[in-house]
């Protein structure tokens, strides 16, 4: 039931016309409150707790509820509890209106979640002042909520834009190394997919779970794109040489790990704050040619001393290099590549990484076929 606005109305504040719900099993009490409130507000009424819960979710939903505590059947305390449990009504402020006037009663009512407590007999000026105050507070909370939502949307939009810029920049940098070697083609796409696959297989492993928790897999996949960025500092005569490199050329080629790590370290120093992506990319660039047995380069790290990200990258890079055409070699059949990598378990590669690769080999083969270079994966 609604009590409509009628007659001459006083000058309104911004909350004039707000919808209020008055809940009381006594029609006389409803009439008294209606007479006080209807000049300023749209008043809806309910004579039972069950009906109050229905009206609270029926348009126009109330912005404030004045609720009697003592009602037959479902009393005011239970109505308030149910309102608080329903996400649709949990934020509607409730003022208890009751003849229960002791301090203990008032404290109990406020403790249940009521925003205010009015005792009968009601004083019109006091009722209107309390209602006005609670509506103003609700409107202020609603404005703050809307502002926060708008701010969150703007932050999300800017973060998405920043992420796009970062991704484009990473790909552009990675291409600098890729375009130096015309034979690599889809190497970056395959590398990212292989890293996601292998990391997902290792995510629950206790030796890798910390590195791969949260957004660790995506961070690793993106960071891996810069693993060979240092090759931009290698002369074409070495980088594109057909056939094997002599010892001096091999030593020069191996400097690409240090060159890449130093370039990323310079970018870190220029950043205003630490960036997890750059830290991960730096360790991959520097250490992806280390070997489990300590015979790799540039720092001859062994075992667990090699960062987990670089241990995963080492196998991914070796797989793609062996299976792809390069200026100095033809592609190797995938079953031969698989056997060769598994044979390096505990020597070149972390044993657990090899085991995860071997278990996921069919998926590796599918990725290889999806991003195939001409003449590769024969």
UniProtKB/TrEMBL annotation:
Its EC number is 3.1.4.-. Pfam families: HD_5, Response_reg. It is an enzyme of class 3 (hydrolase). The modification 4-aspartylphosphate is found at residue 68. Keywords: Coiled coil, Phosphoprotein. Residues 19-135 form the Response regulatory domain. SUPFAM superfamilies: CheY-like, HD-domain/PDEase-like. The keyword Phosphoprotein applies. Gene3D superfamilies: 3.40.50.2300, Hypothetical protein af1432. Residues 134-161 form a coiled coil. Residues 184-322 form the HD domain. Residues 162-373 form the HD-GYP domain. InterPro entries: CheY-like_superfamily, Cyclic_di-GMP/3'3'-cGAMP_PDE, HD/PDEase_dom, HD_domain, HD_GYP_dom, Sig_transdc_resp-reg_receiver. One of its GO terms (molecular function) is phosphoric diester hydrolase activity. It comes from the Bacteria. One of its GO terms (biological process) is phosphorelay signal transduction system. PANTHER family: CYCLIC DI-GMP PHOSPHODIESTERASE TM_0186-RELATED, CYCLIC DI-GMP PHOSPHODIESTERASE VC_1348-RELATED. This is Response regulator.
């Amino acid at each position: 039931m609604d009590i409509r606005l009628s007659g001459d109305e006083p000058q309104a504040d911004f909350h004039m016309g707000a919808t209020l719900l008055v809940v009381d099993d006594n029609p006389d009490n409803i009439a008294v409150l209606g007479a006080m409130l209807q000049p300023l507000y749209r008043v809806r009424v309910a004579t039972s707790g069950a009906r109050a819960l229905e009206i609270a979710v029926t348009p126009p939903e109330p912005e404030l509820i004045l609720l009697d505590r003592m009602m037959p059947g479902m009393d005011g305390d239970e109505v308030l509890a149910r309102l608080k449990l329903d996400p649709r009504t949990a934020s509607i402020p409730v003022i208890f209106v009751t003849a229960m006037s002791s301090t203990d009663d008032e404290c109990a009512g406020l403790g249940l979640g009521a925003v205010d407590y009015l005792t009968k007999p009601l004083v019109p000026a006091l009722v209107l002042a309390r209602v006005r105050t609670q509506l103003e507070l609700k409107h202020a909370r609603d404005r703050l909520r809307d502002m926060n939502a708008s701010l969150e949307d703007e932050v999300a939009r800017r973060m998405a834009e920043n992420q796009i810029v970062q991704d484009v920049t990473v790909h552009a940098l990675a291409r600098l190394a890729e375009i130096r070697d015309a034979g690599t083609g889809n190497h970056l796409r395959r590398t990212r997919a292989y890293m996601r696959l292998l990391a997902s297989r290792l995510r629950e492993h206790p030796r890798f779970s910390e590195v791969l928790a949260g957004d660790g897999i995506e961070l690793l996949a993106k960071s891996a794109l810069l693993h060979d960025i240092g090759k931009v500092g290698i002369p074409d005569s070495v980088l594109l040489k057909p056939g094997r490199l002599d010892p001096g050329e091999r030593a020069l080629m191996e400097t690409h790990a240090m060159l890449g790590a130093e370039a990323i370290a310079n970018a870190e120093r220029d950043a205003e704050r630490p960036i997890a992506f750059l830290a991960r990319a730096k360790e991959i660039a520097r250490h992806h040619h280390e070997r489990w047995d300590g015979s790799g380069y540039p720092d001859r790290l062994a075992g667990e001393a090699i960062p987990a990200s670089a241990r995963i990258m080492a196998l991914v890079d070796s797989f793609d290099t062996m299976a792809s055409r390069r200026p100095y070699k033809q592609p190797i059949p995938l079953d031969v590549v698989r056997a060769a990598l598994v044979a390096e378990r505990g020597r070149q590669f972390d044993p657990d990484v090899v085991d995860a690769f071997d278990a996921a080999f069919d998926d590796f083969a599918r990725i290889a076929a999806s991003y195939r270079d001409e003449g590769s994966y024969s």
